[in-house]
Amino acid sequence: MLDLKGERMKRFVFVVAAGAALFLGLAQAGPVEEAKNLFERYMALERAFSPEVADLYADDALIKNKRTYATGPVREITIPASQYKAIIRQAMPLAKSRGDTSSYTDVAYSKESNGVRIRAKRFSDLKKYSSPLSLLVGPDTSGQWQIREELSESQP
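The chain above was modelled as a monomer; its predicted structure follows.
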């Protein structure tokens, strides 16, 4: 049994409380750190024009894109994840040949009940426009972090 009195007891309680706070802080930061790591990998694979970026998407991911045409119409489409992943794999060589790169700014991470939402502005270096990007990321049943949802906007 511990025999702690006075100042020693105060220090002991402080150390235990500080350790618990640190542990809770690390536990809370875990999902956001996982999301940051996934987004860093996403950007690196994209910059390398690697078709492996498709592997970051869950097989049942929700993919929605709102496309705004210069003449005014806006068309929103939902693409099945399997089709989207195939498009990514096929498009990477063409994107590389055209120098079709993107950069990201104003990246923000927020926890949601089923993962972490990543919001960013994506700038198309080829087409010279910015658009919002929202990704919901989270672990699959094996604990592997994946993109569960992509909501994006584009222009032709």
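Confidence is low (pLDDT under 50) at residues 12-29.
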